[in-house]
């Protein structure tokens, strides 16, 4: 054999040795060195751990009507390696699951991914369409979906459940740990289609379903509040508004209506997240003349005034620094009693009461009524408002006096209703609440009303109630509740802006707050209309809605009239 042939044989032999060595190395590498890792990956692919969401408890109104519940749904996922034609699969799924085909294709072709969730909470009809396609690698798993049968009804009280099946905003967030339950866990061996192999080893830790909430919200009263609020906003060409109805004896909230609102079934479509927040507890405003109720309550309780106390109702009060603070429209009322201060809505008269109390006693009384701090209602996002206390940066002699008639102080609608309800029930501040029962199977936890503190004496409450009933009688020419005596006060508040108070059309907040029937107060109602353009005044923009709501509320609750239904001559009030 020639040297050239020998060299060729040796070269071929060396190549075969190198090839055999490479193959051997790969075999050893996979079988020995990477064996445990690859085995773990294979097992992870076959044995998949799934979190099984618990069914959330229902949310019921006080009449047992379902406001929030779970309905059947599915999530669609893909076993990436089993998808034969990613592009065709993406195009077929896109119109069904509401995702662009490009997004689905990107999800199906991610490097290193074995399993990907494509969409969640699909309706059964959509799931049926996906099953009919019989796409390789596409898997459907059941999961619950939250539904709100009444649409945007009380939506900012309820909140919603997000993509992660967690409560967001409202009661869904506040009681998430209670109503949400405890998720379960399923670990099982899957076949190539992603289905659990029945005879293979698996472990199942079942979920614990959530508790049911029963609310103080009465759907009939809530419907009245929302309907009247919507109509009033439309008539007044207003920006929005709030109506609250509270049981004065317990602090239970029968209705909490806000506009604008949103449909929690379609929360994904909301472009303005501020709609999710509840302005009844999370938006402070200057209450205007409705706050005179609190000022006179403090004056009466301290003994610095009586209903018949007479003050000079001039056009303005001049402060030591020369600042003049006027009545609305610079009106001059002349000598007026404290009842007439409320009827006239006299700023000068309210300032006289604050003056007699003094800054320290006035500030202490405001805080005693709960202003400047959250009420403690069982809803998330509550704020405490703004009270300028003596010695604080925001306090001045001017804010001291303007606070007496509801400017220079910021309150939430719920704070004001809760404070006025304390006058209605004889002087005890109650903690407002929305959930009255928590049901876990056969166990029922009943939420008891919680008195916070006494804020005024029973005698003061009776006296002020009689005064406010006279105020309501004076409104009879503009709005009234035929057959019933109601205690109420209107308010018209200017809106502060960067350059001082706003001016022009839609630059006020109009409101009415009151309670009744006077003989045995049961309900406190606040109607607040934001930026009305029909009329800036509380008695005209909010008064008719207040009267209509109270009329229907008392009829709904079966409370008989206490007096004949007659027309009453109009009085001489100012808003």
UniProtKB/TrEMBL annotation:
Gene Ontology biological process terms, A to Z: cell wall organization
Subcellular localization, as worded in the UniProt entry: Membrane
Pfam families assigned: PBP_dimer, Transpeptidase
SUPFAM superfamilies recorded: beta-lactamase/transpeptidase-like, Penicillin binding protein dimerisation domain
Sequence ranges assigned to domain Penicillin-binding protein transpeptidase in this UniProt record: 241-550
Keywords from the named record: Carboxypeptidase, Hydrolase, Membrane, Protease
InterPro entries according to UniProt: Beta-lactam/transpept, Beta-lactam/transpept-like, PBP_dimer, PBP_dimer_sf, PCN-bd_Tpept
GO cellular component, one term: plasma membrane
Domain Penicillin-binding protein dimerisation positions: 52-198
GO MF assignments: carboxypeptidase activity; penicillin binding
Alphabetized PANTHER family for the sequence: PEPTIDOGLYCAN D,D-TRANSPEPTIDASE, PEPTIDOGLYCAN D,D-TRANSPEPTIDASE FTSI
Protein name: Penicillin-binding protein
Organism (species): Thermomicrobium roseum (strain ATCC 27502 / DSM 5159 / P-2)
